[in-house]
């Protein structure tokens, strides 16, 4: 669409997606590659934990005790975000990468915990989706009453498939 403003032509793209053009492929590859160095998704974490043996990382739940009691990933270490600076050294091995999670996409507790751990010298990734997507994708979790699992939400995981095919 072309409009006239004060005797000058302004050209706008046909849709809001392209108002800011995509990055050059080299820049995009660097950005997305870096993103993968900082993030892991729920399905990949679950696959690594269920493969048997040592997955090569530890999972850290950075939520409150009340949240932990409602449900957490089996085998996760519980360390609320606010306590990371004072307790991480006692609970974690600096030579083992840490994957942090909190409630879900609307919470940045896992990001803040990952930041605090990185400042202490730990290798760290954040699990995208948090506990919400762990439960929604139908993976087993623990509560104070024991282990449980929910049916997978078909909006987050394909029904009857082992993985999403990503």
What does this protein structure show overall?
- The structure is a single chain.
- By secondary structure, the protein is of the alpha/beta class.
- Helix content is 33%, strand content 19%.
- It contains 6 helices and 9 strands, in the order ββαβαβαβαβαβαββ.
- The chain has helices spanning 25-38, 42-50, 65-70, 84-91, 109-119, 130-136; strands spanning 2-5, 8-11, 39-41, 58-61, 77-78, 98-101, 124-128, 141-143, 146-148.
- Strands 3-7-6-4-5 form a 5-stranded parallel sheet. It has a two-stranded antiparallel sheet with strand order 1-2.
- A hairpin with a 2-residue loop joins strand 8 (141-143) and strand 9 (146-148).
- It is globular.
- It starts with a strand and ends in an 18-residue tail after the last strand.
Features:
166 residues; five-stranded parallel β-sheet; 6 helices; two-stranded antiparallel sheet; globular; 33% helix; alpha/beta
What is the N-to-C succession of helices and strands? EEHEHEHEHEHEHEE
**How much helicity do the residues have?**
25-40%
Neighbour order of strands in the largest sheet: 3-7-6-4-5
Could you tell me the radius of gyration in angstroms?
20 Å
The portion of residues forming beta strands comes to 15-25%
Poorly predicted segments: none
Indicate the structural class. Answer: alpha/beta
- Average pLDDT over all residues: 91
Main pleated-sheet profile: 5 strands, parallel
Work out the number of β strands: 9
Shape: globular
């Amino acid at each position: 669409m072309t409009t006239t403003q004060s005797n000058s032509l302004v050209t706008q793209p046909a849709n809001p997606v392209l108002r800011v053009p995509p990055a050059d492929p080299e820049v995009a590859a660097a950005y997305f590659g870096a993103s993968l160095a900082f993030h892991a998704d729920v399905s990949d974490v679950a696959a690594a934990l269920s493969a048997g043996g040592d997955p090569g990382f530890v999972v850290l739940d950075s939520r409150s005790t009340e949240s932990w009691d409602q449900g957490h990933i089996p085998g996760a270490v519980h360390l609320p975000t606010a306590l990371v600076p004072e307790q991480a050294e006692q609970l974690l091995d600096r030579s083992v990468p840490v994957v942090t999670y909190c409630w879900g996409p609307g919470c940045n507790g896992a990001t803040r915990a990952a930041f605090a751990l990185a400042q202490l010298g730990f290798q760290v990734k954040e699990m995208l989706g948090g506990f919400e997507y762990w439960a929604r994708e139908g993976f087993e979790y623990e509560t104070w009453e024991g282990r449980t699992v929910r049916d997978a939400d078909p909006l987050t995981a394909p029904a009857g498939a082992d993985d999403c095919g990503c």
